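Closing statement on the manganese (II) ion sub-project.
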Amino acid sequence: MDFLESYRKAGRIAGKVRENARKKNHIGSTVYEVCQKIEEEIKMMGGRPAFPVNVSLNEIAAHYTAEPNDPIQVKDGDVLKIDIGVHIDGYIADTAVTVCYDPKFEPLVIASEASLEEALKISKSGSKSSDIGKIIEMNIKKRGFVPIKNLSGHSLEQYTIHAGRSIPNIDSFGSFRLENNHAYAIEPFLTLKNGLGIVHEGKIANIFAIVSRKPTKDKESDEALNQIWAKFKSLPFALRWLLDLYEEKNARDVLEKLRKRKNVHAYPVLIEGNGMMVAQSEHTIIPKENHVEVITA
Ligand code: MN
Ligand code: MN
């Protein structure tokens, strides 16, 4: 399949799965159930999850995924970011929606969607990343909210989610122009007016990725490294995804060893600096000469 077709297929699946997740009432479900169902749906539609579904609640902006049988339940006061990745042959569609059951936070969610829509309107080949950041910031601020300035969109490459280019959520120095037929994710993150607008790393880290295949001098670890590489390559994975290979305790030990040897990186959760609610919206786009293809629409 042509790479553009792979992107489009990944995007169609990701978009459908996101809309199903948006419509569903998740109150009372555990985050484990939310992740499992979405990942199952992706596979049923013929895609592969490009990373563990992120289910980040309230002041957690990103990078939380369910632990095996994670008991955390979605409650009616929650603001839940569901971030979904689908790949076809390594070509990744990255998309996110915020679901919210407390009407008090609805304007926050609406602002995230609106700022993304406005950013898409000015995105095509040659658009400057700084202009996109400027539009996002303006649309967030005019609705009385605060952009998260140390989270950004990004370029995508085959089997690589963050491929080097950043698309900011604020007006910022340093800019590049969107390239024709390349893939980019645009993802405004925002918080309430008394938020800090900066995320910090938290203590929990339950999303992992192989960052080096250098042999470890330990036979068991080398074997694990090869098995994990065969399954996910450089893409992120969760401990839950290793349970067909190992028992849970064993999987934790193996991961810990690989992490200590710096073969595997663990991504910490990212938490709003003042502990304020965070919303996010995300689409993956492919810029064209005179328009933009929103592959996750
Ligand atoms: Mn995402
Ligand atoms: Mn992304």
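The chain has a mean pLDDT of 97. With this model delivered, the sub-project is considered complete and its resources will be redirected to Aim 3.
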